[in-house]
Specification:
- By secondary structure, this protein is α/β, with parallel strands linked by helices.
- It has 17 helices and 7 strands.
- The protein has 3 domains: 132 residues, HUPs (Rossmann fold), CATH 3.40.50.620; 126 residues, Serine Threonine Protein Phosphatase 5, Tetratricopeptide repeat (Alpha Horseshoe); 123 residues, Orthogonal Bundle (DNA Cyclobutane Dipyrimidine Photolyase, subunit A, domain 3).
- The strands form 2 sheets. The chain has a 5-stranded parallel β-sheet with strand order 5-2-1-6-7, with helices on both faces.
- Helix 10 crosses helix 15, helix 12 crosses helix 13 and helix 14 runs antiparallel to helix 15.
């Protein structure tokens, strides 16, 4: 039996503003009633220097909720669901062959593993019609005012070229999509609930208040939900699209006023956009020890030193507090991520890729392009023209935790 559609989802677990999903369901509705097959991916195990990095229970649980929420929204459609690991090319290839798939639908994913799997499928099944849609980024390739091969070398240059683009508007969901969402509670660990309902509720609540009017001033806070947007976990699993966030931001600015404070939310979306195109432009170099540079960094790997960093036992109190927060919640602030990365690379002289892999294991908002791109940036092997970023940890602690409240809270939590 030939199937009308196989939809391969990854960082796009939503019904709204999902071009590939909408196309697959629309085409299936015009076919002979053959069900749509949807493949969702669970976190894979990454291996560096003989060490396995297995996704944390928090990250896996969040992903399961995101998938469950999407299934609930699509109950009106005749869909067969399949689950594979993110890196399991063989399982996906087997499905295509066993089901006799003629058409594969996929939103464009920029990371090299996803690109390679898609290329493998095209080679193995020459007649397979692979339809790729723009669903994870603000821009389509055709929107960019330059070829991807000529991607600006720094974020500042990239931002100047793209920040005034008139971006697309988000797509409506497919017809007959359920308006009901399963509602998952927020968890005791502080982990947010997965799925579109939690994502859209948080998006609406955030912009209904005035937090965006203070965003630039508060974005470096080390803890709490009030100071930063916290959109990243839902963006990472695709329960929100960047276009939806941008649309909500523009509506907020129309009602409450645009300012430097609100612009900085757009600024952060552009950073995410930049790293997505960096991932696509440089492929495997995103994971290489020397990164985008010609010379490798002067660091090594000591298992005991690295383990102390993972467990929040380095002796640098601001770093240890951040790392214990990560273990317990699956989250860390952007400022905290910069400080712990600087510590691992510059104070402890450890291979930056291990830190990136640990973040991939622990963070519920793990995004391949942003995570590995940011780690390269901090390690001095990425897109930062200054070479590397080394932070004075004592000074940073005094600046961002002057009363020591954040450190007291998390240093009293023993490493898991």
């Amino acid at each position: 039996m030939k199937t009308a559609a196989l939809l391969w989802l990854g960082q796009d677990l939503r019904a709204d503003d999902n071009p590939a999903l909408r196309a697959a369901l629309c085409d299936a509705g015009n076919s002979d009633g053959t069900p749509v097959h949807i493949v969702t991916t669970g976190p894979a195990v990454r291996r560096w220097l003989g060490r396995d990095f297995e996704p944390s229970r928090l990250r896996q649980a969040f992903t399961r909720e995101c998938v469950a929420a999407l299934k609930e929204r699509l109950t009106a459609f005749d869909i067969c669901w399949h689950q594979i690991r993110e890196d399991d090319a063989e399982a996906l290839s087997s499905l295509v062959g066993e089901l006799g798939v003629q058409t594969l639908y996929r939103n464009f994913h920029p990371a090299t593993e996803e690109v390679n799997i898609l290329d493998t499928l095209k080679k193995k099944f020459p007649s397979l019609d692979c339809r790729i849609y723009p669903g994870l980024q603000l821009a389509r390739k055709s929107d960019l005012p330059f070829a991807v091969a000529s991607l600006p070398a720094t974020f500042s240059a990239f931002r100047r070229k793209v920040e005034n683009i008139n971006w697309r508007v988000p797509l409506d969901p497919p017809t007959a999509t359920s308006a009901l969402y399963p509602v998952f509670p927020r968890h005791e660990s502080g982990r947010p609930a997965g799925g579109e309902h939690a994502a859209r509720t948080h998006l609406s609540d955030y912009f209904a208040g005035d937090a965006a009017q203070r965003y630039k001033d508060t974005r470096n806070a080390l803890g709490g939900w009030r100071e930063t947007t916290r959109f990243s976990c839902w963006l990472a699993r695709g329960c929100l699209s960047p276009l939806q966030v941008l649309q909500a931001l523009r509506h907020h600015e129309a009602e409450q006023g645009a300012s430097e404070q609100t612009y900085w939310i757009y600024f952060e979306l552009l950073w995410r956009e930049f790293f997505h195109w960096v991932a696509y432009r440089y492929g495997d170099h995103l994971f290489a020890f020397r990164g985008l540079k010609s010379e490798p960094p002067k660091t090594a790997y000591d298992p005991e030193t690295f383990e102390r960093w993972c467990q929040g036992e380095t002796g640098y109190d601001i770093v240890d507090a951040c790392m214990r927060q990560l273990l317990r919640t699956g989250h860390m602030s952007n400022r905290g991520r910069q400080l712990v990365a600087s510590c691992l690379v510059h104070e402890l002289q450890q291979d930056w890729r291990l830190g990136a892999a640990w973040f991939e294991q622990q963070l519920i908002d793990y995004d391949p392009a942003s995570n590995w791109g940011n780690w390269q940036y901090l390690a001095g092997v990425g897109c930062d023209p200054r070479g590397h970023r080394r932070f004075n940890l004592e000074k940073q602690a005094q600046q961002y935790d002057p009363e020591g409240e954040f450190r007291r809270r998390w240093l009293n939590v023993h490493a898991a």
